[in-house]
Amino acid sequence: MTFKTEQEAFWAGDFGTEYIQRNQGDALLASNLDFFTKALRGARGIKSCIEFGANIGMNLKALNLLRPGIDAHAIEINAEAAKQLGTVILPSNVYNSSILDFAPARQWDLTFIKGVLIHINPEVLPQVYDTLVASTRRYLMVGEYYNPAPVAIPYRGHSDRLFKRDFAGEIMDRHPQLQLVDYGFAYRRDPNFPQDDITWFLMEKLE
Q1: pLDDT at 15
Q2: CB neighbours (10 Å) of residue 119?
Q3: What CATH number should be reported for the domain holding residue 99?
Q4: How far is the C-alpha of 110 from the C-alpha of 181, rounded, in Å?
């Protein structure tokens, strides 16, 4: 697999594989159930979904409990994570590739990305935004670190690996057919269901 950016190689390699160990467990699943219950309360009729950057499928595990029988698909750049992801959803529905190389052949009722846009090279964000919207039949959910202006911050001793900005605002500016349905914040110090300071936005695609 060849990559266009340093960030892709970073997550496809050893760092991405090591991340798997920090991204699993019953406590995370419980927090994800709470997260998606809130983030998708304004969504209706979701029978299919695709997650961009799914890792080993902890988000999809929660979503499958909330929407039993959902036709779930996912994109994951790290080969080991994609292998484990194939035990959560159908292996044939796992796309082991970079988001930048993904070309949707169909649309899904829900397209979502959570904690992934922050790790993508800002120069290629417009392409990613377009692919997210192209994959969306009705709803797009974005859950990321929010900042009103673009900023880069150190990430686990690495530079240029974590970026904060108004991702949802930029997507809606670029694709005015998207309308904001709901939004909210999940706090890392929540005593019951902590998340990693994620601000989420649910948007609906209008015809």
Answers
A1: 67
A2: 17
A3: 3.40.50.150
A4: 13
Three-state SS at 108: strand
CA 165 and chain centroid, separation: 15
pTM (two decimals) = 0.91
* 8 A C-beta contact, residue 144 and residue 167: yes
Which residue in the block uniquely carries the two structure tokens 């974005």?
142
- Which residue range forms the structural domain that includes residue 71? 6-205
* Cβ contacts of 92 within 8 Å, gap of 6 or more: none
Residue 87 φ then ψ, to 5°: -95, -10
Q: How many residues does the chain have?
A: 207
β-pairing verdict for 178-186 and 71-75: unpaired
User: Would you state the pLDDT for residue 199?
Assistant: 98
Compute CA 141 distance to the chain's CA centroid, rounded to the nearest angstrom: 8
Identity of residue 21: Q
